[in-house]
Queue: 2 jobs
Job 1
Amino acid sequence: MEREVQRVRQAFLSGRSRSLRFRLQQLEALRRMVQEREKDILAAIAADLCKSEFNAYSQEVITVLGEIDFMLENLPEWVTAKPVKKNLLTMLDEAYIQPQPLGVVLIIGAWNYPFVLTIQPLIGAIAAGNAVIIKPSELSENTAKIVAKLLPQYLDQDLYIVINGGVEETTELLKQRFDHVFYTGNTAVGKIVMEAAAKHLTPVTLELGGKSPCYVDKDCDLDIVCRRITWGKYMNCGQTCIAPDYILCEASLQSQIVWKIKETVKEFYGENIKESPDYERIINLRHFKRILSLLEGQKIAFGGETDEATRYIAPTVLTDVDPKTKVMQEEIGPILPIVPVKNVDEAIDFINEREKPLALYVFSHNHKLIKRMIDETSSGGVTGNDVIMHFMLNSLPFGGVGSSGMGAYHGKHSFDTFSHQRPCLLKSLKREGANKLRYPPNSQSKVDWGKFFLLKRFNKEKFGLLLLTFLGIVAAVLVKAGYY
Amino acid sequence: MDPFEDTLRRLREAFHTGRTRSAEFRAAQLRGLGRFLQENKQLLHDALAQDLHKATQLDSAFIRKEPFGLVLIIAPWNYPLNLTLVPLVGALAAGNCVVLKPSEISKSIEKVLAEVLPRYLDESCFAVVLGGPQETGQLLEHRFDYIFFTGSPRVGKIVMTAAAKHLTPVTLELGGKNPCYVDDDCDPQTVANRVAWFRYFNAGQTCVAPDYVLCSPEMQERLLPALQSTITRFYGDDPQSSPNLGRIINQKQFQRLRALLGCGHVAIGGQSDESDRYIAPTVLVDVQETEPVMQEEIFGPILPIVNVRSVDEAIEFINRREKPLALYAFSNSSQVVKRLLTQTSSGGFCGNDGFMHMTLASLPFGGVGASGMGQYHGKFSFDTFSHHRACLLRRPGMEKLNDLRYPPHSPRRLRVLLVAMEARGCSCTLL
C-alpha cells in the first residue's frame, strides 16, 4: 500500500499533472471513456443494483458527462490568478490568489451510486491538478471492477490509480499520508476517516448522510407533491443519501398522502412492481435484513412485501410512526415513515431535536412558511417544493453540515475543494525609503502614520487616492530626510 | 395577399433541406432556448405578471450563509489579542455563539479577556473559559459546531482528532519553518532590512516570520555585514537596552531557544540573559539540516543561513520539507520570484518582503499541509464560520416537464432525455 501511494506521489512531484493542457487532456480522456465504454459501465451498475439502463444513464452517467463538460469549459478561467483589492501600502504591488493543486488526493466512493459518487469527485481532483488514488466501494463490486479496469486504459496510469478492497485494505490505505481525503459514506466511518486524517493533518471532505425530513404543508397541491416525493423516495430503491427520508405532516393529511403515493407507485412501477425494470434492488443481504428489521412493530399502510432471494423490498409507507422506533433512527431504504405533527412549529422542533440532515424538503404554496422552515432549521441543502433537485445544479455546493458532513463539491466547488488558494504578494526591492516608516527605532508619530496608511483602503475616489499618494510620498521623503 | 405565405414557405423549404434533423442542430436550438430563459428571467417574470398576474416564477437557486452554531476558538500566546479577536470577529459576524479559550501562557491578556471582554458582549452567547493543556483536553471532549485553533502542528493534530469524534469541522492555523530565499541578484542591505525586521519583530515569536535564509555562499558574505548594520540601526549597539526588542514569553521557550544558539556558528549576536528572558538578535551560519535549529520551528530571534548553490537547489530543499505557512523570495528578477512561487507550495507567499501579505484583508490567510487547513481574514473569516447551505426553491407548477423523469421509462424517452441534456444550460430546470 505504501509503495503504491509513494509511486503516485512521485508522479505528482514530477509536475506533470499541473499544466492546464494536461488536465484538460485527462478530462477529455475520461469523457471518451464514459462515452465509448457506456455499455460496460451501465452493465456493471445494473449488476450491482438491478438498475435499468435508463436509470443508470440518467442518474449517474449524465451527471458525470455534464460535470466533465462544465470543467472543460470553465477550467481555463479557474486556474488563473485572481487579483485582489489592495491597500495603500501595497498599492504598487501585485496581489492575487493563485489556486494550486494540493498533491495526492484519496477518494473513497460509495455503493449506492457507485459510478458518479466516485467519478464526480475524481473530475474535481483532476481539474485542480492533483494526483488521485480512488478506492471504490467494495459493496458495489461490479462497478469497482469496471472502474479499476477502465481508468488505466484512458487516464495517466501513474497519476490516477484505483485500489480495490474491503475494510482491511481501506484501513491500511488511511494510515498513509494524503493531501486531501474525500469520503462519501456513513457517519460512523466518517469519524474514522477524519481521525485517521488528523494524524497527518490532512484536510477532509466528508459527504455523509442523515435522515432528510420532508415537511408537507396543508396548503399545497397534494397530487403533485406526492408524485415528486414518490419519485425521490423510491428511486434506487430508497438507497439515496438525499432521498426524502420521512414525512412530517398534520395527521389529517396522512391518509390522503398514503393514497396518493400508493397510486403514484402503481403509475410508476405498475401493478406488479417486481416486474418493473425501473425498480431497483437492495445492494446486499446485510442491508436487506437491516431494512427488513425496521418494519417490525410498524403500521404498514401499504407495501411491506419482500423477497430475500432477489433482495426485493416493495415501496412501503408507514403511518403514525413513533419517533423512538428503529425506523426513525436509521436511514436508507424504500420505507417511508409518516410522523404526524400538530403544526409547522412542532415540525421545526422535531427537526431541530435531531442531527442536522444532508437535505431538507418542504412542500407548500405558502412562501413565508418555506422561508420560515429554512430560517429555523439547518441542513446540508434544501429543495423547496421538490426533492433531490438541488443536487443537479452544480452552481450550488453539495455537502452536509454537522453529522451529515463537512465540505462541499460539484462544479467550481469541486475545483475549490481540491485546490489550495494561495495568497501571493509580489513587491519590488525598490522604494526602500518608504519602509523606513516601519523600522525601529519607533516613535508615536510613526504609529500614527502607520494607522493612517494601513486602515485606508485602495478604493477611494480618484482625488482622495491622489491626495493619499501625495501624502505618502511626502511622508517617505520626510522620513528619509530624518525628520522621524 | 396572405401575410403569412412568405414566412411559411421559407420555413417549409428550410425543413426540406433536412437541416433540422441532426441531433447537433436540435441541441444547438435547445441551447439557444436555454440561454433565452437564462438571460431574460426578469423580462419574462415581468411579462407574465403583467399578462396574468401570475406569481409564476422560474426556480430560484441561492446559497445561504448560516451560522454553524457553537464555535470554539483556541488562541495562542504570541499575538494574544490579535489572534483571539480577529477570529472572534469572524465568528460573531457569521452569527455564531462563541466559546473563547485564550492562551494561559500570556497571562495578562488572558485576565483581561476573561474579566473585561464579556462585559461588552451578550453573555448568553459568549463565554471565556480558562485553563491549561488538561482543561483544554476536557473542553475538547465536548461537542462544538466549529473549532478554530491557532497553535503548533503537534497540538493541531490533537484538536483535529478530538473534533473527529463529533465530526466537527476545523480551521487550524499552525506553523512551520518559513524559508526565505535570497537570490544573488539583490541589494543585500535592502534585503537585510526587510528580513531582519520581520525576523526579530516580537522577538521572533511570529508564525509567519522568515525562519531561515537560503542563499549562496557569495550572497551570505554580503548579507552578514548588511544584517549587522541593520540590527545596530534598529536596536542600537546594546540591543538588550533597546525598547524596540521584545522578550521571550517564558522560561520554557527561553531554554529551548538558548539551546539552539549552540547550532552551527554564531555570526551575529548569540548573547542571552536568563533573568530577562532576553535573546540577542542572532544570525547563525554553517548549520546542518540535521541540527535542531533546522528541525523545529524556531519561533525566536535566531536566523540560520543555509547555503544553496542555485535556485533549483533552493526549490528542491524547500520541497523536501513540510509545506510552510509562508514562503519568501528576494530577487530583482521577477522570473526567479515567480519560479519559487510556482514550483513550491506554502500557505502564503510574499516576494521581496516579509509577511506584508497578512496586512491585506482581501487575501486569505491560512496554511496548507502541516502548516494548517482553512483560511480567514476579512470575508474569508465570514465564509469560514458559515455553513454554505444550497437552496433550490422550485415552483409547484410546470409538473408536465417533470413527467420526463418519472417511470415507467422507455427507450424513446432516453433519446429525448439525451437531447435535452445536451442543452445543459437550463436542462436542470427542464428536468
Note: Chain A has three domains: 1-208+409-423, 213-403, 431-482.
Job 2
Amino acid sequence: MMLNPSVGLPDDRKSLYPQSQSSAYKCGDKTSPISVILVSSGSRGNKLLFRYPYQKVAECPSSLSAKQRNPYVLNTSGDELDDQDGDSREQSPLTDEQLVAGFSDIVLSTILATKSDMCGKKFELKIDNVRFVGHPTLLQHPPIIQVSKTDPSPKREMPTMILFNVVFALRANADPSVISCMHNLSRRIAIALQHEERRCQYLTREAKLMLAVQEEITTTETDGSPQSPFRQILPKCKLARDLKEAYDSLCTTGVVRLHINDWLEVSFCLPHKIHRIGDTYIPPEALERSLKAIRPYHALLLLENEKTLLSQLPLDCSPALIRLIKTCSAVKNLQQLAQDADLALLQIFQIAAHLVYWGKAIIIYPLCENNVYMLSPHANICLYSPLAEQFARQFPGHDLPSMLAKFSLPVSLAEFRNPLEAPTQEAQLIQMVVWMLQRRLLIQLHTYVCLLVPPSEDEPGLRDEDPPLAARVGGRSLSTPSALSFGSPTSSDDMTLTSPSMENSSAELLTGGDSPLNKRMTETLLASLSEHERQFILNIPAAQNPEDLRMFARLLHYFRGHHHLEEIMYNENMRRSQLKTLFDKFRSVLVVTNHEDPIISIFQSPMD
Amino acid sequence: MSTLLEDLNATGACTLPIDESNTIHLKLIQLRKDPPIVQEYDVPVFTQCKDHFIKSQWDLTTQQILPYIDGFRHIQKISAEADVELNLVRIAVQNLLYYGVVTLVSIFQYSNVYCTTPKVQSLIDDKSIQEECLNYVTKQGQKRASLRDVFQLYCGLSPGTTVRDLCSRYSQQLQRVDERRLIQFGLMKCLIRRLQKYPVKVIRDERSRPPRLYTGCHSYDEICCKTGITYQELDERLENDPNIVVCWK
C-alpha cells in the first residue's frame, strides 16, 4: 500500500506507512495494469503468444539491493514465486513487473489458456499479489480448405486455434470496479479479434508470426545472454503493437483506441484515470448515480475545445452527437439544447451522460448572472501550479491567484458587472469563469430551505415524537427519465419537455381569488403537518394573506432541504424575487442555508 | 475444514489444533484505506468514548499521549505537553486514525470561518445523527437543545462569518448549546467544513527571493504552527501588504 505525499511536503516527513519516495522501483498505482498477456489453446497445446512488458535481460541482482530501500516495505523474496526457468533470484523488494515476471511463459500459458467451457465468461484468477482478468473466447473452426482433386500431395493438417484469451494482470488489491473495467476491455478486444479471425484468419496469422519468432529466438540463443523473443515480435506483428499500445494507454491516459487489423476500432476508457481530482478518482458508481439524477435545467459544459472534440470522433459516429456538440453551450440548459439541436430530451440525456463518462464534459448549472460561485475546497491555488501558467497564457495580463481570490467569498457574476467597463471585459470575465469551471476550481452555491417550526415549550413530549417533515411529506420524486443507464437503449420516450408532472402543479391552483376550492386545497396541503406546526404557521402575520399562504402550502414539499431555489423556480415557473420574498415572510419557520448541489458536486470534489 | 469456515464467518478468527503440539491461529484482517498524513496543526478527536479502550493494549507512545487527546489540542501542543517527540506523536495518531479510533478536525478559534456542506441536511433526515448531535452539543446540566436551534446555528455558519459573529448573532440559540462542541461535532460528521486562508504573493520584483510560504500551498494554520506567530500577527502583517492576496477555501 503506497501513500502519495501531498504537494509541497519536505522529505523529512515521516510516516508509519510506506510512501512512494523517489525509489528505483516503479510502484504502479492500483488502477494501472501490470502486464498484458495473450495466450491461445489449440491443436498444438497451450501457447503464450505475447506478453508485455516482457522480461528484461536479467540485471546484476546485487545492484538492486544496494539502491535506496524503504525500510518499511515488506521484503518478499523472489524465491517464493514459482520459477520454472531455474533463475536464481537475490533478495530484493519486487517491482510490479517482477511480480508477473516471476511467472514463466509456460506457467502463464497453462493457467491462462482455459478449457473451452470457460469461454464466453469472465475469467479471474488471483495468485499472491497478482490478479489476472480476461475473457477467454472460443474460435469457430476455420472453413474447410478445398483441396483440388488433382493435387497428389497429402493434405497437411493446419494447426488450429481453438480459443484465445487476452489477459490483464493487475495488482491483487485493485478495486472491483477497475477489475470489471479491465474485463470489459478484454472482452471488446476479444470480440474484434474473433470477428477478424472469422473474416480473414487474422488471429491465426498473427499467432503464427509470433510463434515463429519465438522459436527462432530459442534456437539461436547464445549461452549467457538470453534475449526476449517478445522484443523481436513487436516490429513484425501489428497485434503485438496493439496490445502494447493498450497497455501503455491504460497506464497513462486511461483512454484506449485500437485499430485491430487496421480495420476494426476498439475504444475504451478507464473512468478511474479520467475522472481524477488530485490524487483521488471518482468511483464509477458515484458517477453513474450522479448522471441518473441530472435534470433538464442542468447544462453540459464541454471540457475541450469544440473543434478538438469533433476531431477526436470516429468517422462513423452518430450525427446526433455532432449536432449536440455544435449546439451546446455553458448558458444553455439541456432542455433548450434539445430544442436547438432538434433531439429528444432523453437522447440529450444519454449523449450527455456518454460525454461525461468519457471525461469530455461535466454537468453544471447554466451560467447566468445570479449564479453564486465560490472557490472549490480542492482547487489548486498554488502560485507555481501548471494551471496558473496556462491561465496567464490564455488571459495575458491576469494571474490566476488574484482571480481566485475574488471568489474567496461567494460572489455572484452580477457583482462583477461594472457599467463603466467595456463590454469586452465582461465577456472576458465569463470566459475566465468558464475556464475555471472546466478545471474544477469553482463550485456553485445554491440556496436550500428547510421547514422547522419552533417547538412548543408546553408540550415537550410531542416535540420529540414528531418525525421530521421529510419523513412525512414523502414520496414525490422529481426524477429524470428512469431508464437512463450507460449505453443501454431505453424504450420510454414519454419524456415531456415541460416540468415533471406533480400532484400540485401550478396549473391546478388558481392564482386569483379566494375560492372555496383553493381554500380546501391549502388545507389539504397543510394537513400533513402536525397540529402544533399548523397552528404556528397560521399565526404568522404573513399567513393572513391567503395568496401567500396558498403559495407556501403549495411549495411545502420543497422545504425539506433537498431542493434548491433554482429547482423550485424551474418546477413551479416562479421568479427568484417571488420566492425570496416568500422565504422572508415565513422566516420564523424556515431555515435557509447555502451549499453546493450534491448531485453535481461530484464533478468538483471526489468522494471523501 | 468446517470449523475454519464456521468460525471465520462467525467471529473472523479461529483456532485450529492440528496435532498435540501444533495449533494454527487464524484471523481475518479488515483491509482499511491508507490514512492521510497527520500534520502538526491537526487536532485528533475520539470518535467513541475514550473509556471504551483498554489502555494497556496500546503501545507506550499512544498511552502517553492519550490523556492529551481532547479534541481541542493540536499535534504540536500534544507533543509539547506530553513531552513526546513530534514525529512520534504524528505516527501514533496516524495509527489511531487507521483504526478509526480518532478522526481529525482543525484547530478551534473564535476567528475561524466555517460553511455548511450538503451533508448538513442529514441532521434533518437522519434521526440517529440528530440524537447523537443534540446529546453531544448540549451544555452540561442543561435541558436538551432543540433541533431547530442547532440547525439554525449550523446554517448560520457561512463564508465571511466568524464563530464570534455567530455567537453574537445567535445568542438566544446558544443558551443551551456549547459552541465548541457544536463545531467539533459538525466537523467530525462533515456537516460543516473549515475555510482556511491561503496567502499568495502575486506581485514581486525580480530582485526579491521567491516566496517560500506565501505560495498558496500553506494555510494560516500551517504558517502559524511553523513560524510560531499568532493568527492576529500574521493577519496584520499580510493585510497591509499590497503584494499579497488571500484566498479562502
Note: Chain B touches chain A through 46 residues (CB under 8 Å).
